[in-house]
Amino acid sequence: MAAGRLPPAALTLKQFLRRQQVLQLYRKILRAIREVPAEQDRRYLRDWAREEFKRNKDATEEVRIRNPPL
């Protein structure tokens, strides 16, 4: 690869920073879920968070990432 050329799948700086924010949010949610006293509730919330993040993993529109549909 020539110097200064990025592979086609490389993220822009803005995309990279947004990805870092999303990952940080996911980690915070999982940490907060650990504080829930009931195991069954923790399991439900953990599964819900995973599914929501998986469902939106291909989101690319800035507005959708910042304000996902409910």
From TrEMBL:
<comment type="function">
    <text>Involved in efficient integration of the N-module into mitochondrial respiratory chain complex I.</text>
</comment>
<dbReference type="InterPro" id="IPR008011">
    <property type="entry name" value="Complex1_LYR_dom"/>
</dbReference>
<protein>
    <recommendedName>
        <fullName>LYR motif-containing protein 2</fullName>
    </recommendedName>
</protein>
<comment type="similarity">
    <text>Belongs to the complex I LYR family.</text>
</comment>
<keyword id="KW-0809">Transit peptide</keyword>
<dbReference type="Pfam" id="PF05347">
    <property type="entry name" value="Complex1_LYR"/>
</dbReference>
<feature type="domain" description="Complex 1 LYR protein">
    <location>
        <begin position="20"/>
        <end position="66"/>
    </location>
</feature>
<dbReference type="InterPro" id="IPR045293">
    <property type="entry name" value="Complex1_LYR_LYRM2"/>
</dbReference>
<keyword id="KW-0496">Mitochondrion</keyword>
<dbReference type="GO" id="GO:0005739">
    <property type="term" value="C:mitochondrion"/>
</dbReference>
